Amino acid sequence: MVDEPRPPQGPDQPTTPPPGPGPEPAERAPQPPQASGPMPESFADRLIQTPPSLPPGAPAPPPPGEEEIRHPDGRMEHPSVRFEKTDASFPWVLGLLLGAMAFAAVVHYVILLFFYEYAGYQNAVKKSPFPLAAESSKDLSRPPLPAQPRLEQVERVSDPEHPADAYAGLAAKEDALNRYGTTGDKNFVHVPIQKAIEQLSNKLPSRPAPAEAQPKDQHKENGLVDSGESNSGRMFRGKPKWYEH
Length: 245
Known about the structure:
Layout: H1 43-47, E1 69-70, E2 76-77, H2 90-125, H3 131-136, H4 152-158, H5 166-177, E3 181-182, E4 189-190, H6 193-200, H7 218-221
């Protein structure tokens, strides 16, 4: 039997079975459909992240090295520690401070305005409907004083600039008793008290004197001694009158 020559098969050409009797080739298993979009990120790709690209002109970060470098002279250097190379803007800081001060001034002004308005509202609400109490409630800083006579301490507290002196008040009253002057009543004047006593002597009604002196009580005159030891009624103050011979 002579073999027939076969044409060369390339890698892309499918392999055809030779003609003739024999078993039929097995069918291929169906392949799963492939997604047309991007492949999902695997767990290994998540662990290995590529560094982000730097903008053009930016300095490249230093390569990772040791956390601490010790120099021969004892100086230590930390390459991973960096500091801000630019200073804060002074105009911005000054503007922020001025703005805060202006805001605080506005807030204080609003609070004071509220307090003054509220004080006026309270005065109007608490105003007494009685006319006698209106005069005493005008000055809220000084409460109304009690009627005279008042204690000297009350006078000192009510008017610290002109403290009342009790001795000065007594001297003024004594002076008023010893001089002439007008009174609150019409057609009446007051005179010195000594002159008034002289004018009224023997002119006011008085109780008449008794006609004769009442005899003394005999029991009190010749009674028992009212002090000392107990004498059982045997000792008298003196010799009784009935004992005289």
